[in-house]
Specification:
α1 packs parallel to α3, α3 packs antiparallel against α4 and α4 runs antiparallel to α6. The relative contact order is 0.15. The protein is mainly alpha-helical. The protein is built from six helices and no strands.
Length: 157
């Protein structure tokens, strides 16, 4: 792997992990108190699982982004796919401030629903450029589908 490719890979992963770091800034202060007081749904996993799962998902997202970027930024399909990816990453980064920061499960639910649609859109765009990049997003869409269930269970509390 050339140094330029290594830089793109590291940058792709770092961009995605940064979204998670931003989210953690809103999550940590809200857990003791507000989040702990919420009635959890039957399938709610333990709180400690969310960090490792998201770190892994952001890693997969970063690798997927790298695989798309490697196809050449001059390619129109690559530019489109990366633009759509950016939209879903922004929606991803917005969910935590809405849910934990604003403590507003309704707005967070709207955001996560749009995020789910944006992930599907991203996967569609990625598929036109790199099938392996698309496959790397499958765990992400599955987890966000589960997160929609969790988020919905907190509406009205």
């Amino acid at each position: 792997m050339k140094i330029q490719e290594v830089i793109r890979l590291v940058l792709s992963i770092a961009i995605c992990q940064f979204a998670g770091i931003l989210g953690a800034l809103f999550t940590a202060p809200a857990i003791p108190g507000w989040y702990e007081a919420l009635e959890k749904p039957a399938l709610n996993p333990p709180s400690w699982i969310f960090g490792p799962v998201w770190i892994f998902l952001y890693l997969l997202m970063g690798i997927a982004l790298f695989l798309i970027w490697e196809k050449g930024f001059k390619n129109k399909k690559v530019k489109t796919a990366m633009g759509i990816f950016s939209i879903q990453l922004i929606l991803n980064a917005l969910w935590t401030p809405l849910f934990f920061g604003a403590q507003n499960p309704v707005l967070a639910f709207i955001d996560i629903t749009l995020l789910w649609l944006a992930i599907i859109w991203t996967m569609h765009a990625f598929y036109k450029v790199s099938k392996p990049a698309t496959y790397l997003l499958i765990p992400y869409i599955i987890w966000v589908s589960f997160a929609i269930y969790l988020n919905a269970s907190f509406i009205g509390q």
